[in-house]
Each structure stands twice: as structure tokens, then as C-alpha cells.
């Protein structure tokens, strides 16, 4: 008898604990949760708390409270990226040993001043200032100044050759990471950027299907490149539409969208809310 083993579906919800969750987060969590459950798969919770300036323990507690309120249970232990820093250092070391990284001493102001920089999916493309430093100056400054690590994107792309990834809605996509320029892979204040940490962890947690908002569609070009460079598998991607309010604007803290905690406080029934989100009838929140 011939038997084939198909990897069971694994999805994750990966919020950053930098504020209270709103209905847009709930929608994303439900989509990832239901996708796994419908196929007898696993649903994981990963707290993306590598930003020491913005992450707060009370928001981690809030995420747990909100997911439980919505009736969403995750499998296994919740993972915190702050406990995974050695893994990110390892991946960074491998990319550095391959000659694909360089230290960057620039401040945000330095980059903003180089106003001629073209814009990419994440704003101004880095003008390459620190890439051109002479080796002696670079070594001297590394001893004295805080620095980030950037990827030399053209060198990286030349290394991997053409890459593709699959999105459930958009279909087969040719990866185009060049438009991002030399993105940061390790920050001055953390040994990883979002792009590096998410790529390493999706592989480590054996995530088969990344279900997340359309706002992260573009970032997938970089994640696909990093997967190829690090020898990691590529999950399937499902970028879902973002929830909008009654005026058609995307829900966001800075626009004053009500948090799930606010909805709870005014007596909203969580199961009715989850149902409305599942039916796609939750605009106007
Ligand atoms: N931590 C990211 C966020 O809260 C999401 C990461 C992801 O789903 O890839 O926007």
C-alpha cells in the first residue's frame, strides 16, 4: 500500500503587544483560527514583542484576555519572540557569514535628509550611505556606535535567483524584494527586525499557512527572499482584506477605533461579534 503524508495545517496569530486589539485583529485571529480548525490543524499564538520601546506586558495580558473572550483557543504554549533572540542572532550570523549584511549607523533623521531616496513599499528606500563606508572607518565606528544590520538586497537577490510564492487570492507571485532596498534585519535596539523574526519563527513553528491581513502582502516579498537565503520552507499565504469602519477607513488605534476591551466594557456579546466577523457583516464597528 502506498501512503503519503501530508503535513497537517498549522496557522498562527502573531500580534505585536503595542496596544489593545481591535475588531480588525479579532477578524484576523478568527480567519487563522477557523482555517486551521476546519482542516483539523493547529492554531498557534505568537507574541511579537521584539520592539523593546513599544511592547508592554499589559498588552500581552490583554491579547490573552481578548482571545479567550472571543472563544478562540490556541494549541500549545504561547510563544514570545523576546525569548527567541538567540535564534534570530543565529540567522543573522549565517547571513553575515554569507557576506550579505553590512552595519548601518544612520539615524532616522539621516535617512529622511537623503530626500532624493525613491519610495518603496515601506517608505523611503535606504540610500546606501553606510554601504559605501571604507572598511577602516566601518570597523572603528562599529566599536563605538550603535548600529543596525542591513541586507545588501541586490547581492541577496543575485544569490537566490528568481523566487515565487503563492497567495490564496492573488495566485502565484514572482518575488520582487528589490523594491524594498537594503532593509534592516537587526535593529540598533533588538537583534532582529520584524522581517527576520517572522521568517525564522514561521519556519521554526512549522507554520504551513500564513493567514494575515492584506497590509502585510508586500512584506512577503522580503520573507520569501529570507526563506531562500536561510534554507527555510515557504508556507502558503492567505492575505485577507482589512476590516474597515463605516466611513470605509481601515480600523486603527490612531483613528480611535474601539478596542475589544471597549466593546466588552459596553456589553457587546463576544459570540455575536465573532459570528458577525465570520459572516463579513462587521463593518461600522
Ligand atoms: N506582528 C505583526 C502585526 O501585528 C503581524 C505579523 C504577521 O502576521 O506576519 O502587524
UniProtKB/TrEMBL annotation:
Gene3D superfamilies: HUPs. Residues 9-279 form the Glutamyl/glutaminyl-tRNA synthetase class Ib catalytic domain. This is tRNA glutamyl-Q(34) synthetase GluQRS. Its EC number is 6.1.1.-. It comes from the Bacteria. PROSITE patterns: AA_TRNA_LIGASE_I (PS00178). Keywords: Aminoacyl-tRNA synthetase, ATP-binding, Ligase, Metal-binding, Nucleotide-binding, Protein biosynthesis, Zinc. The keyword Transport does not apply. GO terms for molecular function: ligase activity. It comes from Sphingomonas oryzagri. Belongs to the class-I aminoacyl-tRNA synthetase family. It is an enzyme of class 6 (ligase).
